[in-house]
């Protein structure tokens, strides 16, 4: 994915409108058409559903026009939050020659700060563009057509590059003769260019969007928003938060533990992600697990999808400063949370492999059910056979939304009903045998 892509406009949520129509055939009378119209309106259109059974069609129709519906309190609050960012996100846009940008990156003489990659949340720059993308960008620079700005946050002696890492890396590699630029049907390294063409390249103007002393939390949020419409995956955007978010920090620490590598890969696969994609999907799966196990308040709903709504929930935990080992969550350090997460992960996967999953239940829903069971039910009460009975007996009842994908989230009442239903199936402990002398019949001797 390229940071410099300029054609990835942020896409809004899709809206599906279901309409029915009745066309009047040639020769049909107006009375016949009037009789046909109601019957067409009474026939509901088939609604679209995703692979998990969730309704993806909008409920907007002629009677519920979204343009006439007033904003609710939550929307108004979020709108206020957006407008409050105006003062915090002040920036200047300038033009800088290629040579000036390189000098800013390599030395402290041109500026009072030094341009650096912000490795705290950006991807590894070694996993850069392929040669075709590199050459294409170099040609746009040479032609003076590189329009996408470099985004920088200047803090004290560092100017952290928030966006444009691959572009800067490509320019540096070209100047060092490490990569060529395609010219017609051949390739040319920087040292092969005539001096006048080298000067031409070095004097090309690049746009720089420069923030000043942007707080780290806002810097991370801006990076996520900047890439929300591009091909940057949710896992990669979550990676941007690991320095200021306790949930993704714990997930990141677990992912790095080799002793649970197989468990992490299994979790990733069962949650519908590709375990061969490496760290980004592993981090996404572990963040989903950690959020359910540690960072949900009792009154919070449990999100049952790994999508942008989940990313939004995670980012609510972003803090203004970097999350360091000295901080605690509910009295537990990062290391303690990591070790507890590893233990809970093993318990959850062991339960998952032991339960008898109904045929109509997906791996994702079964694993999520096991997560909730491990979180809500005491270890000495949790039995795979009892949970299997519960999943088999509630496919069409009130609890079916948990097991069959009829809801995208679970409210507090849903989770409480799940726990109550489970405990009803737990067999009662046997009564101890009476001790002492013989049992007397009613009424005494």
Verbal overview:
This protein has helices spanning 30-41, 73-88, 98-106, 131-142, 165-175, 195-202, 216-226, 234-239, 246-255, 261-270, 279-294, 308-315, 334-354, 363-376, 384-393, 400-403, 412-425; strands at 91-97, 114-117, 150-155, 158-163, 181-183, 186-188, 205-212, 302-303, 328-329, 332-333, 409-410. It has 445 residues and is an alpha+beta fold. It has two domains: 91-214, no CATH class; 233-425, no CATH class. The strands form four sheets. The protein has a five-stranded mixed sheet. Strands 5-6 form a two-stranded antiparallel ribbon. Strand 9 and strand 10 (332-333) form a beta hairpin. Helix 9 packs across helix 13, helix 10 (261-270) crosses helix 11 and helix 11 crosses helix 13 (334-354). It is elongated, with a radius of gyration of 29 Å.
């Amino acid at each position: 994915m390229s940071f410099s892509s300029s054609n990835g406009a942020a896409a809004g949520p899709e809206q599906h409108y279901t309409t029915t129509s009745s066309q009047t055939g040639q020769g049909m009378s107006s009375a016949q058409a009037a009789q046909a119209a109601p019957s067409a309106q009474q026939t509901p259109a088939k609604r679209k559903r995703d692979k998990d059974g969730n309704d993806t069609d909008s409920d907007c129709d002629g009677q519920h026009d979204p343009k006439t519906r007033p904003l609710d309190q939550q929307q108004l609050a979020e709108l206020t939050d957006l407008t409050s960012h105006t003062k915090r996100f002040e920036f200047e846009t300038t033009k800088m020659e290629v040579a000036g940008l390189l000098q800013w990156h390599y030395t402290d003489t041109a500026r009072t700060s030094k341009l650096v990659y912000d490795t705290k949340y950006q991807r590894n720059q070694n996993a850069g563009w392929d040669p075709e993308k590199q050459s294409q960008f170099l040609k746009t620079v040479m032609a003076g057509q590189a329009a996408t700005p470099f985004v920088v946050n200047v803090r004290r002696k560092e100017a952290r590059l928030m966006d444009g890492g691959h572009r800067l890396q490509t320019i540096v590699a070209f100047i060092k003769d490490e990569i060529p630029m395609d010219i017609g049907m051949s390739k040319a390294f920087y040292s092969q260019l005539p001096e006048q063409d080298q000067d031409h390249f070095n004097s090309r103007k690049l746009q720089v969007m420069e923030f000043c002393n942007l707080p780290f939390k806002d810097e991370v949020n801006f990076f996520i928003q900047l890439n929300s419409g591009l091909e940057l995956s949710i896992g990669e955007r979550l990676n941007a938060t690991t320095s200021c978010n306790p949930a993704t920090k714990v997930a990141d620490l677990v992912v790095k533990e080799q002793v649970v590598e197989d468990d992490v890969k299994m979790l990733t696969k069962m949650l519908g992600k590709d375990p061969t994609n490496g760290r980004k999907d592993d981090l996404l799966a572990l963040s989903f697990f950690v959020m359910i196990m540690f960072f949900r308040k009792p009154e919070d709903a449990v999100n049952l999808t790994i999508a942008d709504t989940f990313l939004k929930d995670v980012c609510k935990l972003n803090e203004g400063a970097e999350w360091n080992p000295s901080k605690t969550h509910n009295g537990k350090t990062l290391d303690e949370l990591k070790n507890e997460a590893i233990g809970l992960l093993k318990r959850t996967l062991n339960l998952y492999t032991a339960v008898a999953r109904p045929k109509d239940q997906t791996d994702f829903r079964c694993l999520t059910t096991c997560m909730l069971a491990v979180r809500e039910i005491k270890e000495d009460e949790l039995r795979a056979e009892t949970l299997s009975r519960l999943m088999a007996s509630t496919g069409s009842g009130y609890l079916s939304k948990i097991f069959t994908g009829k809801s995208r989230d679970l409210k507090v009442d849903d989770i409480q009903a799940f726990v109550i239903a489970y405990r009803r199936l737990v067999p009662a402990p046997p009564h101890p045998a009476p001790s002492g002398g013989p049992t007397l019949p009613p009424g005494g001797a």
